[in-house]
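Support case: user asked for a sample of complex input and structure output to validate their parser. Sending the pair below.
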Amino acid sequence: MREIATDGRPDLSGPARAGRVAPTLDVARVRADFPILARTVHGKPLVYLDNAATTQKPQAVLDAIQAYYTGINANVHRGVHELSARATDAFEAARERVRAFFHAASTREIVFTRNATEGINLVAHSFARPLLREGDEVLISAMEHHSNIVPWQIVCGMTGARLRVVPIDDAGGLRLDELERLLGPRTRLVAMTHMSNALGTITPAAEIVRIAHRHNVPVLIDASQAAYHLRVDVQALDCDFLVATGHKLYGPTGIGVLYGKETRLEGMPPFLGGGDMISSVTFEKSTWNALPYKFEAGTPHIEGAIGLHAALDYIDGVGLEAIAAHERELTAYATGVLQEIEGVRIYGTAPDKSSIVSFVMAGIHPHDVGTIVDREGVAIRTGHHCAQPVMDRFGIPATARLSIAMYNTREDIDRLGRALRRVREVFA
Amino acid sequence: MGDLNDLYQEVILDHNRRPRNFHALADANHTAEGYNPLCGDRLTLYLKVHDGIVTDVSFEGAGCAISKASASLMTDAVKGKSVAEAEALFERFHRMVTTPPEESVEDMGKLSALAGVREFPVRVKCASLAWHTLKAAIAEKKRTSTE
């Protein structure tokens, strides 16, 4: 039987390890680890620039999932038999890996969810809803993904609380002065993104937390976009909650992470009821399991957690610092290439941004742009990116968006540039 | 595999650039709003129907080239037709953009320019938004959606 934890890991002895001193990234070597990058689309080599929607998976992740099912598949936290014990060990090892990745103090603070959306909903219903009274306020920003808007609207609707929005400036930067102004005696929670999926803006999450804590207001950080581009350390941020999603961290879909400070999670009622989240059940009364299991009802996404474990190992093997440097360099390059193309306008020009470039082409709808570049083998996202308020803020219905991950190259950007020139030809 | 030139035919690019009947209709007696949440395409359709005949039709809105051209071509195609004829044309149009090319589309005039959409399944909703909105307007539903 193959050991699931050690197969297919990147070799850490190479140049990637040296990243701490001078971050370098061997893109050719990284690309070789992602089997899908070798395929063609419409007869042309794939250029995948839709990473903000989901990232591709390295072979190490696929191997870990395969090894789980071929070697140790069983339900977790239940049986006394060997496979169940091994599956439980692997599942809990994944939790420890997530804890280390986000530098949480304890695995009791790491709850596995389906995705970031579920994490936000959990906090909305188990933390905010019991707390909110009529006239209370929840504070978000104008560049949130719908997943960090709608759950708050729902609990505000249930409680009579009010959702208030910190505006962004014309470059797409968060107005910290407005955050300060809007934090009031009725503010019960701040929920904000660490990186905008529509604009690429990186928000000063630690500063947001500091300001909110000065007003004794807890903070949830949505790290869905940030977590695979920059180091996210929950203790350094001092956030009360943080959510992330596995499939953007080069891991499988259907697995997400909620971090919550132990003191916060302890005081919260369960979100979903069922097996695994109880310590005892009678028809009269059930008592809840300890953290984090109180929040993990039912059979979890075991292979998802194991795949995520392999993905985080892979990321750290390459080195987040090296990845971040590579992506910033490519973002600057892509910005330059786009600016050379007639009629292109870029949205989101905040000084601190990375990996995402949103743009429109004069007179051509982003949807048409997307279809034409797809025929050239180039995958980009077009639409409102589940951030309609951002589109409204800039008075546009949609944008085209390229988003960069560790395996993208200048050649990818050049291919997009040529595809966009083709768009101009079609619409000439 | 569909060719881009089949999708972005000259007729479509022309109707995208210069959409016909692209204005509000003050004395419309049927209107409907169409919305495609996938790409944010929105259009408002205005109809004047008298004695079962579409005597005038127009639209406003914003969308991709396919949805705009389709709306423009549709307004030209149904103007002067009976409601029953317009609905029958919708059925034929829908077949044309969603099923393999079995029947001839020669008699569909300029609408046949949109036949290439069938090779681009994710764009079918763009092409059919105006037609769904037409159906809703005839039925006087306030709003329609292709989702």
